[in-house]
Amino acid sequence: MGAIAYDMLHHKYEVAGQPNELAALEGRRDDFIGAVNRILPSSISNNLFPTLVDLLPLVDNGYVDGAVKDVDKLLEELINDQATLEALSKLLGGKSGVTKAGAGHGRAQLISRLLNYPELEDLVRSSLALIRANDGLDDAGNPNGERNLLRELLAAASRLMKDYKPATSGQNKANAVASTLDHLSTALLADQDMPAFPNLGAPAWAVRIDKFGNPQVRPDAATGKLPAPFVDADGDQVADVDVDYRPIDQNGTAISIAPFGQDGTRDSYGRALAPGGGLYFDYYDAKRTLLSEVLLLVGELVEKDSLGKAVRFLDQLGTRVKHDNGTASPDDDWETLSPSCALLDVTHAQFELVKATPLPQLLQGIAEIVKQDKDKFCDMVDKLIAAIANAHAAASNTPAPGSASGLVSDLLPLLEDTLRPQGRSTSSLRALLQAFNSEQKKLRTLPVTFARMMKFHDYKNRIPADASKKSVMQRILEMMEGANQCNAPFMGNMAEFYLEAMAGNQKILGITIHIGTIHRLLDIGFLRNLLCSNIKADDVRALKDFNDSGALDAMKPIAKVFSDRGETTLLKDIMLGLGKHYDPVMRPTEPTAVAVLESGAVELLFEVLDEMTKVQVPNSNEVIADVLADTLQEIVHTSAPVYDRQGNQVKSLATLMSTAFDKLSQQAQAANVQPELDALMSDLSDTLLATYTDDMNTADPADDVTRWKWHGLKRQLGDLLEAAANAIPVDQTDRNRWAAEQQLHMEQLITGRDLVLGLDLLTAIANSPEKPTINKAIGSILTPQANAQFDVFGGILVLAAEGLGEKAATAQLANPVDEQALADVLHFFGRQLDPLNGRVEGIVELVRQFLRADDDLLLLNLARNALDKGANGTETSALETLQSVFDDIDAAGGPAAATTADSLKQSLEQARDFINDQQEGLPSFINRIKNRPARSTP
Known about the structure:
Layout: H1 2-16, H2 19-27, H3 29-39, H4 42-45, H5 48-60, H6 63-79, H7 82-93, H8 105-116, H9 120-133, E1 135-137, E2 143-148, H10 149-162, H11 171-189, E3 205-207, E4 283-285, H12 290-303, H13 306-317, E5 320-323, E6 334-337, H14 342-356, H15 359-372, H16 374-394, H17 405-418, H18 428-443, H19 446-455, E7 456-458, E8 463-464, H20 472-483, E9 487-488, E10 492-493, H21 494-503, E11 506-508, E12 511-513, H22 518-522, H23 525-531, H24 537-549, H25 555-564, H26 568-586, H27 590-598, H28 601-612, H29 624-636, E13 642-643, E14 649-650, H30 653-670, H31 674-688, E15 691-694, E16 705-708, H32 711-715, H33 717-727, H34 732-750, H35 753-766, H36 771-781, H37 792-811, H38 819-833, H39 841-853, H40 858-867, H41 878-892, H42 901-916, H43 922-930
Helix pairs in contact: 1-3, 2-41, 3-40, 3-41, 6-39, 6-42, 7-38, 7-42, 8-37, 8-40, 9-36, 10-35, 10-38, 11-33, 11-37, 13-31, 13-35, 14-30, 14-34, 15-29, 15-33, 16-27, 16-28, 17-26, 17-30, 18-25, 18-28, 19-27, 20-21, 20-26, 21-25, 21-26, 25-26
């Protein structure tokens, strides 16, 4: 087939009298023939005739004619649309501005691996069967009244293109975007050990990008200088570039060394080697990055069918609203989720929080703390996650906590009071944090003491709390409830008397009464009954035992803070509120709380809190602890009016958020999808709380340490927080505008027709007999493979890493794309794709019929052969070889003229002439096929 194609092309140039092009073709004869034979090997060409015979009915039945008419009409409209021609010429003729790292290496590698992975043919066949089952037609091609998801997907693509708006952001916004992308790229692409994933298979090599969007040149290890021919005149460790951002040598000549390929000196992965044998560029294994962890995490959730649960939850959560497009046909009507969907209330509350709080400063501050001592932070996270995971497993057989809405409603007003300064320079909460920090430094026992209060029923005798024995914490709260009913002479409210005694501030007749000496008064029966009949002798003795055993050590600094501020009543009311809801809400969570408090993580958290009192927020004079307190204060005691989505004023941000989540829970229960939500949350918690055992590189299990599975997320949290902070404007006016825009986007997404279309499409997959095949194929894609040729997982990572690196670099340079030109082109093609205009029906029908007839997947096999780049994605594909041959032929014909609207118009008119030439053009070929000898007519 290669020789036949060569002879035909050779004859064309001979007849046209183009000797230069002919000579260029002859010089690349072997390359051309070899490439064609790779695309059409004998295994395909020998069976090509039967396949072509199967495709002939597409011509006979007029499907090709219909598609040609659509193409002709499209060309006509484009020729007559001067604005789109101008825009298209700008896009085709403009410079990219940024050298693409690896010259599309990631894209080519992914396509090659996708085409080669074993389940592809099964996936394609199952996908085609799914499309046929949801195309609104029966097997004979007649409308069957069913929904046409294919048409709706085409309409969605049309809307997406027509709705595209050119970027018009100012310089400040552009700088913020560049900074956000830079931090995000740093976090996602930083090298990680990935200790929880020892079997990642073949490496997925990618190359880091410098500030100009070029592959980052690696300095020589011995000299610290960039290897020749790269130069670094300014000494910034980045290769110098020309005006087009291309790296240059000492003579100013552009350097064309690609990071991956086969030319020059390369290693087995196709990486470029410098003269001394080292690598030219800064390569990294994309499988050992946070980006890889994210993809692995998604893979685990897919395996648990978490997406299916989310789809079922969203699909049934709220009622749908039907929309009429204004025509008599129901085919163009659509549905959306109801505006009453509680998800809108949740997102509204979240962005109201962004508006009202110093969230960007808080995120920046926490990021600064994390990055100052990553090892300490990671140790804290490991201990915390391990404790929660262990407690979660231990508590799996205990009753689930009841609804916390009542507890929140009772405590919110009290929490607001703790955050009010009440005429002082600091609030109770700030004073409490300061006191805890001070006591922890002295005693280093506060977390353990809190754990005792929830772990034991009787700490003195080491009797643990269980289903029949209440914890010390709950018993104290119940004591407070009984004592609160008594007001004794000289003592006042007995609950407050207890708390003042805990604080060491209670006096009677000038004598200080401590919590450990109360029993001397109240253990006398007649005196106790005289003062308060609700106080039990057992309670008095238990209180003494609690104090003597140290079970109250954690309560004393709390009591003292409130007592010193004259707010003991407030503390009492908080404790009474906790006691009221303790049994149904808090008691089931005691095992988890105990595990966390005993893990050692809280001690490290205190150290972090201590750092927060010292470290300032970047570009600010405030310490992080003050910003944290300001944020909490604004949540529960909002200074400005707060409104819900319906415009009703609510008391605080905390009220707004709790009400929104309550509404979501109520809607889920009413729609009977609470089990789906619970299962989804269980999937997320099981996946995110997963751990692994670090053997510390020894055979001794005694030194093994349990660590969080998602090592990269832990290590890069600082950069992720910084990226999030940079995405949110600091200026109040800008932040309000930004949050309002995000609210609008979320509302448009949730109540838009495309979300319902996506839900229906995923539901169709879930209900299809093709689901097992599709799920298996997707599972393979998200699983690292040992054989690089089939490692689609690695290919996805390299492509994503390449795109992320380029995006971050491009954002810092002048925008290389004419946004208005891009918008004009997209709007034009969006109008063409709109099913309501009927301009591509013939093309769609031809594609549909071709896929139905192509049961041997000829097109897939041709694409596989044309684009195959070998195991590592570094070999030259057959298509690239043919492109290179034609580039040489074009160059031999002289320099190409610049692309203009007029030159495009001329080319399009020539194409249209060929389409309509009945004698020598496309119609003549179609008629020859229709009038072929021995054609059997129906």
